[in-house]
Amino acid sequence: MNVWEIIVMTFTDMGFLSAIASTILIILLGFFCRKRGIFNENVGKILSKIVLTVALPALAFTAFMTDIDSEQLAQGINVLIWGILMYIVLMFAMKPLYLKYKGDEKTTLEVLSIFGSTTFFGIPIVSAILGPVGVIYANIFNIGYRIFLYSYAYIRMSGLKMELKNLKSMFLNPIVIATFLGLAIWLFQEFLPQVTVAATETEAAREVAILRIDQTLPWLYAPMEYLSKLASPLAWLAIGATLAEINIGQAAKSTSSWYYAGVKTIIVPAINLAVFFLTTATGILVFDIDAVTTMIVMMATPAATVAVAYAINFEREAILASNASLLSTLAAVILIPTWLVILNIIGNLGIF
C-alpha cells in the first residue's frame, strides 16, 4: 500500500473522522450557545467543574477496569518513563526558543510551553479517538505532568519554595485519586482475592479480582461508566463557551502569543515525535502507535489552566498568559485534528 492509498484510507475512515468531527462541532456548539445566550456566563465554569470533579475521575477509574495485557503494561511503563523525562527535556529545549525574551515574559512563555491542558483538553480527545487504552496511557502519562506542574512550574512562577498546599493539589484531587486507585487495581488484579463471575451469553464463567467492579459489581460500575461518557462532550461544550467569553480580536494583536501558540501546538509535539522515532528505532524506549498518539495529543494541548493561574496570581505577565491561553486553544482546535491525521498515516505506514 503506497502513501497516497494510506492518506485516502485515513480520510475515508468514518470512525476516525467522526471522532475529529465530534470534537470540533461540539466545541462550536458550545461557542454558538454562549453567543446566542442559551448558555449564561457561568456555564463554562460549571461544566468545567463537573468534568474535573466527576466525569474525568470516573473516566480515569473505569478505563483501568480491564484485563491486564503484557504489551499494554510494557507500553504503560515506557509512557510513565517518558512522561517524566520529557518534562526535563522540555525545561532545556524551551530556552533557545525564547532567547529574545527577558524576565517575567521569558519565564511565563517557557512554563506555558512546557505544561499543556492535558487533563481537561487532552484526555477527552484521546478517549474519543482511542477509547480505554488511550485513557490508560493518558493517565499514566499525567503522573509526571502533575509532579512537575505543582513543583517546577510553581517554583518558577512564584519564586518561592514548594508549599504544602501544592502537595495536596498534586495528590488529593479526585482525578489523581481515581487514577492511582484504578492503576493499582489494574496492575495487581492477579494478586487480589479472586471471585468467580457467572457465565454470560458472550463469556464463560471465570475468576476475576474482587475489585474489578465491572465484573463483580456491575450495578456500581454502570453509573460510573455513564458519568465517564460525559467527560468528552461536557469538556468540549465548556471549551466552546469559554472561547465565546474572550475578546479574540484583542488577543490576536499579541505577536508573542501567536508565537507561543505555534511553539505549543507545533514545535513541542514535533520534538516529542522526533524523540519517539529515535527511541523506537534504537530500541531504547519502544512505543506503539496508540501510545505515540496519546502523548502527541497531550503535548499539543493549549496552555495549562493551572500555569495560567500561576501567572495571574504571581503577577507574571498575566495579560500575556491569558492571551496565550486563548490563542493556543484556537490553534489546538485546528492542529490537534491535523496531528491526528498525520499520526493515523504514520500508524498505517507501520512506522510504530
TrEMBL record:
**Which membrane topology describes this protein?**
Multi-pass membrane protein
One Pfam family this chain carries?
A: Mem_trans
Q: Where are the transmembrane segments?
A: 6-34, 46-65, 77-99, 111-130, 136-155, 167-188, 258-285, 291-312, 324-346
> What InterPro entries does the record point to?
Mem_transp_PIN-like (IPR004776)
Broad class of where this protein is predominantly found? membrane
Supply the alphabetized keyword list: Cell membrane, Membrane, Transmembrane, Transmembrane helix, Transport
Report the subcellular localization: Membrane
What is the protein's name according to its record? AEC family transporter
Organism annotation: Jeotgalicoccus nanhaiensis
Lineage, highest ranks first: Bacteria, Bacillati, Bacillota, Bacilli, Bacillales
